[in-house]
Target: RNA helicase
Amino acid sequence: MELPILKERDRIIQAVSDNPVIVVVGETGSGKTTQIPIFLYEAGFAESGVIGITEPRRVAATSTAKYVAGVIGSTPGDLVGYQVRFDDETTVGTALKFMTDGILLREFQIDSNLSRYSVVLIDEAHERSQNVDFILGLLKDLLKRRRDLKVVVASATIDEQKFSNFFNRAPVINVSGRMFPVEVVWGKEDVDEEMIVEVMADAIAEIHRSEPEGDILSFMTGEDQIRRVVESLERMKLTDLVLVPAHASLPWEEQQKIFASYPGKRKVIVATNIAETSITIDGIVYVVDSGFIKQMNFHPESGIQSLDVVLHSKSGCEQRRGRAGRTQPGKCFRLYAESDFRERPQFTEPEIKRISLAGVVLAMKDIGIDKVEEFEFVDPPSREAFHEAHETLIALGAIQRGSHGLTDIGKMMAGLPLEPRIARMIIEAEKHGCTKDVATIAAFLSGRQVFARPKGKEIQADRAHVALKNPASDALTFLRVWDKYEDSDFDNQWCYDNFLNARVLREVDDIRYQLFNILESYGFEPTESSDTAVIAKAVAMGLAYSLLEHRSRHSYGGVLRQIDDVFIHPGSAIFGLSNSRWIVASEVVRTTKTYARGCTEVKPEWLPDMAPQHFKRGEPVVARYLKGAESAVISKAVLDGYGHELGSSEESVPVAEAIAIQKARVRDAESKGLLKLTFHNEASGRYSFTASFVAEAGGKRYKASYHAKVEEGVPYYCKVVDTYLGQTTVEPVFQVFAFNNPAPSPGQPLSSVEELAQKRGASLGRQ
DNA sequence: CTCTCCCTT
Model:
């Protein structure tokens, strides 16, 4: 049978010649993906530049390039080339370039005029991925500058009017498909989420009993539902039935079963949305559709995401139906009523309206688009989404409040193929000499789930994972996994034994090297640190905007944003082990609860750097004083917005400055009537004091005893602090040295506030 | 306190 699109060859070529933009609507099997590029090439459009074709997935870009190369009589990488992440098979002679849409976006960042291209074809535009929507906006803008550029938007469903209107009523060419008819069988009543597993299992059993031979494809929302459907069918003990789950987190061996044929038996694939677009299975005759999907949504007010089970759109359900008619006529059983279907939205909400815009806005600014709110999208995101993107980028230091362009940090972030927050970590790592470590962590954070927990082996998997986990940080856990993987010499068997996903680790390896190359181009030295606190701090700096503070029992709340009732995800390395007051998370997602994933404990002394508007360095304390040295290490308390001391950090200042600070503080303390305490040796060997105090305690007298090893005769200034627990304690505000006392030998620290802090717990009783 | 669709630079 001849491809239907061949009949439209001349019309398509003519329309492209006459118009800057055309929209081609072709059903599955129309051959538009392979044929339109060939038409354009044969019509001479490659003479003035490259014909670029974008695909949403890597396999689609590489496999169609190989197919078209065969038709034209070229080898891939010559006349017909492809470029996807990690794999560039193009040369200067490449006239037809297939690529993922992410690659075309990169090219916009390098050359916003796309000067090399004569034609750009955006395939699968109906999927409305974030990248496609961004590219369509960029192309509309570019067409004002490049009158010679030709754009072809290829879409599978009936969304063509929207695209046509967006591009000033561009002509639409319809190409019929080569689909076999698929009869729809409607459900009698609406089924809710609770009942759907049993209803699905019963429907599959009934089809198996009453319908002629042919494989079945069932659509459910997630791994858990799939498992329950399979278990339910197994209990029915049906004969000649093979049950095959299909979802993204399946190990490689299991995935192969999806495509295998089982002679004499009926194959039943119970799948997530992976089978709607990403994988195509031959020989499906029956589709059973639950009508639900899991969808990620982003909430700009709080910065959290939610993974929700929602009713699938009409176009999505139609796409599922089409999976049955690829090789012969089929049937689609919908487990919902026709009246319910009619009330559903026509299309799935485009991704650009359901994600954080921070990465898109960063890329826009990098391309030179300053007025981002005026950028024309097919479906413009909300004002709140733009506001969130701005605030996030300001918090990361990529832009400055009140100015349009990117900072130097922002420019470097935009060059890294990572989410802005993850990119920010690496910039921070450069300052602290741990770029290799943090780039490795970034590769893990941007990749897929590395810890595998196969069905039936959960206990063995958990046991293997415990040995790899760092109880203070998922980021440091990733670093440990990487070190062990290197020690194993990148051994697949080691991955298998330790229940780690080997494919993900190989991808991490590729991402690492890509990042190293980019960092080298920035002039960053590849550095490693043995200090895990330094590495963790760089990670925390990137995630500072999602700083979480412990609230009650197991729940955390946002410090910089309004986020409440967040729980550490059970899959996190710090789950059940952390008692840190602050943590950061790489992701906050609401499912059954709001969970923080990718967690790292935060030390109090990092807080003034992470959130300067909420945490300040307090009054300085001279902790160490070296005679004859040019500088002294002073320790600054970390105070929260109420003046509570949360920790301390050290910095080096000239000795003269340290002395000046001290003297000023002594005067200041005395003027405020702060208590001066002098420690005296007791026979027990302990130091203690009894103090009377009036100045800051509302006229009440306090008796305090403090057990700590401190220098005899050293005076301390103290203040009464009402802590957040509601208990009153006496804390040293700073230590005063007598400068005419014999100085300690160089390098010998005097007793420090840290030491006191460890022994904190002054017992107090009111008189 | 107990677990998440799919992609991609």
